[in-house]
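STRUCTURE:
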């Protein structure tokens, strides 16, 4: 699931990605200006690793 924070008064916005495995939720939050696709790839790789490890 891809999310984006909302800003008030010019505050920075952030990309957030959530992925579920059998036992865990993987949450990644990108820094200001980081493209959401990079966050998705990192989250997918972490979830794939956890799934292979039976988590």
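SEQUENCE:
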């Amino acid at each position: 699931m891809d999310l984006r924070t909302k800003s008030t008064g010019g505050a920075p916005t952030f990309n957030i990605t959530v992925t579920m495995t059998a036992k865990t939720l993987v949450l990644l939050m990108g820094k200001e200006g980081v493209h959401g696709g990079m966050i998705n790839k990192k989250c997918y790789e972490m979830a794939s690793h956890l799934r292979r490890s039976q988590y």
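REMARK: The mean pLDDT is 93.
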